[in-house]
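Researcher: I'd like a structural prediction for the single chain below. Treat it as a standalone chain; there are no partners to consider.
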Amino acid sequence: TIVSARKVGCTRQLGRALQAVRFGGTYPVRSAPSSTLFRAIKMITIDLSGKAVLVTGGTKGIGLATGLEFGKAGARVYLTHRWGSADEEEIARQFTECGAPEPRVVQADVSNDDDTKELMKVIAAEHDRLHVFISNVGFALVTDELEKFKLKNFQRTLEYSSWPLISHLKAAKKQFGQYPRYTLAVSSFGPDHFYPGYDFVAAAKAVMETTVKYLGVRLKKEGCNAAGVRLGMVCTESFRATFGEALTQAVQKHSPEKFVPLEQCGQAMLALCSGLMDGFAGHTVTVDGATGFADNLITMAHDGLFPKFAEALDE
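Model: Treating it as a single chain, here is the predicted structure.
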């Protein structure tokens, strides 16, 4: 229910209440006027009970954290993985501990059309629509030498990191007769920041973010929303594999605040699919806890991080 601030007659208190909403939880309004409409928002929740949510690459890291937040909101979450990389018992335990419905873990290669088709059939067996689709898989060859760049490797990166955003939407439309109500593409700082060995991933993320802009227009006509989520540094297995264990440990030891908590990543995506942020359609939202703004040489020097990082990397 959307409550008009004009009807409530107390925009300041309404604004404070909405700002304090904890997605997936509740917020009590302690000193509200007696208006029936205001009492109606004493508790604001995001209820996705019975809704199907698909998170590709969802059994670890950012994908799993996102799935958990949607599960807390009551959604039936479908998590995909490849190469037998999922510990289904551990995943089920985490969902149970937070009071979420049991998730469905499906082995499916996002670059394989047959796998995607079968995945949609699995979801259709329980639901008549895919409510949320989150394209989270990112895969690329890491190399620092231009001479080692190969077209087939770049194409493979696009097949895994960019094209699934389109292929899964098309498969959902074919299976359910309509697109998901919400589509999110998980991006990174790669398009705007230089990271050693991150060339192909960054290019794929740039393609994805541009695609999101066009989807924002195209899907809006269908009553659907598409948006991107650009995340700052997140301490995951993928981060360790891309940038190395030594750097990961150095950041954890000397500047842990630069890592965005996994829970915040998931909460941001839940918020974008809550109905309260539909105005962001076609845009890519940055979620970095303000660390991107302060991630520069002058700040590091001011904080005395250079010798600390050098020592940690030497170890």
